[in-house]
């Protein structure tokens, strides 16, 4: 099982992702609706991968990950951003943080689990 | 009468002979009798403007002058040396001209006397002005105003002129006399003054710098405000005095580079005292003068703020539209895949329609966002070593659903071996997908589409050919325009935004390539692009710059 932390402010998208990832049966999913909630969640846990929405009210996905990277146990945890911002410069900026990949919105729910595994493999490589 | 061939003796002869002969005597006497205060100095020259009312009065009453002959000669001499005077007879030919007139116009007396006065006219408005003057004189009135005169060498001078009709003792009109002052220099000075005043008022900073000493020779008000220098001290300053500012350093380097190259102009963006500027620098080389740099600094903070707003808007729209679409497409995708259980066929068909249209909405949003990026010159390019054969295969695979929907067969040619190219593969797939999408939509059912890659000298030509209805010649010029309204295209039923090909053009051109099409009505259409294999752009920046120009 892959322990996945999903941070997404849109409840509908959280539900769809939960269903889509639930089909494959390969993920144990914890969902948070904000960066603050996610930071509390990871204080005493280490997910295998973090799936982050980019644009959220309050703390953005990028800021959330920046905070997480300062925590020793999360310094190198793979992170995947789900973002509608697909400008190459934005993607490059995110990848520059290290151990980061990007999945473009809107995503295909039927291939989401494969996309996450592919992204994790890319980060590992 | 005066000797019209000898210029040495002509001044006196001109004065006395003419005075005795005609009404010029009265006129000239009247001129001389008037107090000299009536001469109004303008820019160092003297105009007769203030003199005319007095002159008219005196002339009208034909006052008998009682002036000593010596004094008259002296005064005439002064006048003769200062003012250009010529007389025109009733045949509109020049009958008299003083030395000053000849000196300034460059004619010899024998070249001018007896010749039609119109040889002195300028082509632009000469005849209409002559008609206006003639009309005034025939009414017995004096004409006054500015007249351009053509010198013998063809150059044009500007004069302030007073023309008075001449009458004989019987009151018969015998011609006219004109007194002129050369105001060419005055006009030039005034024009220069106006230019300088305009420069002073400009919002942009203007610096003029001596190319050798690098000292400032001119600064307009905006430039002085920016540097905190004054009219009194800026000429003591040089480029070295501003070089500690990072942005100014770029200006100094650019100036020195221009000087080293010996000519040219350069433009770039820089930051000066915390404000963004667009700098234009030109090396001015003027004969018999020191080389100078003309530096124009255009404050672009407002423009950049607008661009930032636009960029934020793009990001906001992108997020706000795509997030609900993610939910819509995601939900329908899960339903269509029976993740929630089997659905009746009719429900699946309806869901299929909704899903396809959600896809279409995504494409439209992507096109609109791309268009915004093009307009703002902010589309990114990621140049990587790629294989065109692979990109064609990927596009073919990505459009399989579309091909099946229209029951089309796709044939690929020339992709049996790797075709290396340095390009932005995502953008090339975007262009090819657009070509394929058009080909599918305009093909007849069960038709064939051919995707072909041809190796040219150092470039690749990639084409997509359909067997559709072709494009009417009346639409050829509009094909790559935004929202091109094409005959028979039936955009609404085909599902396009009308933006795709204009975006393709901007992408291909910014990647250093060319785009085009060949078409024959009722036979088919081929859209193609040609891209250099070794992308000359060193990195994405260059491509982005070209993209801005292309867009």
From TrEMBL, chain A:
<keyword id="KW-0597">Phosphoprotein</keyword>
<protein>
    <submittedName>
        <fullName>Response regulator receiver domain-containing protein</fullName>
    </submittedName>
</protein>
<dbReference type="InterPro" id="IPR001789">
    <property type="entry name" value="Sig_transdc_resp-reg_receiver"/>
</dbReference>
<dbReference type="InterPro" id="IPR011006">
    <property type="entry name" value="CheY-like_superfamily"/>
</dbReference>
<dbReference type="InterPro" id="IPR050595">
    <property type="entry name" value="Bact_response_regulator"/>
</dbReference>
<feature type="modified residue" description="4-aspartylphosphate">
    <location>
        <position position="53"/>
    </location>
</feature>
<dbReference type="GO" id="GO:0000160">
    <property type="term" value="P:phosphorelay signal transduction system"/>
</dbReference>
<dbReference type="Pfam" id="PF00072">
    <property type="entry name" value="Response_reg"/>
</dbReference>
UniProtKB/TrEMBL annotation, chain B:
<dbReference type="InterPro" id="IPR004358">
    <property type="entry name" value="Sig_transdc_His_kin-like_C"/>
</dbReference>
<feature type="domain" description="Histidine kinase">
    <location>
        <begin position="316"/>
        <end position="535"/>
    </location>
</feature>
<keyword id="KW-0472">Membrane</keyword>
<dbReference type="InterPro" id="IPR000014">
    <property type="entry name" value="PAS"/>
</dbReference>
<dbReference type="Pfam" id="PF13426">
    <property type="entry name" value="PAS_9"/>
</dbReference>
<keyword id="KW-0812">Transmembrane</keyword>
<protein>
    <recommendedName>
        <fullName>histidine kinase</fullName>
        <ecNumber>2.7.13.3</ecNumber>
    </recommendedName>
</protein>
<keyword id="KW-0418">Kinase</keyword>
<keyword id="KW-0597">Phosphoprotein</keyword>
<dbReference type="InterPro" id="IPR005467">
    <property type="entry name" value="His_kinase_dom"/>
</dbReference>
<dbReference type="Pfam" id="PF00512">
    <property type="entry name" value="HisKA"/>
</dbReference>
<feature type="transmembrane region" description="Helical">
    <location>
        <begin position="12"/>
        <end position="32"/>
    </location>
</feature>
<feature type="domain" description="PAS">
    <location>
        <begin position="87"/>
        <end position="115"/>
    </location>
</feature>
<dbReference type="InterPro" id="IPR003594">
    <property type="entry name" value="HATPase_dom"/>
</dbReference>
<dbReference type="InterPro" id="IPR036097">
    <property type="entry name" value="HisK_dim/P_sf"/>
</dbReference>
<feature type="domain" description="PAC">
    <location>
        <begin position="143"/>
        <end position="195"/>
    </location>
</feature>
<dbReference type="InterPro" id="IPR050736">
    <property type="entry name" value="Sensor_HK_Regulatory"/>
</dbReference>
<dbReference type="InterPro" id="IPR036890">
    <property type="entry name" value="HATPase_C_sf"/>
</dbReference>
<dbReference type="InterPro" id="IPR035965">
    <property type="entry name" value="PAS-like_dom_sf"/>
</dbReference>
<keyword id="KW-0808">Transferase</keyword>
<dbReference type="InterPro" id="IPR003661">
    <property type="entry name" value="HisK_dim/P_dom"/>
</dbReference>
<dbReference type="InterPro" id="IPR000700">
    <property type="entry name" value="PAS-assoc_C"/>
</dbReference>
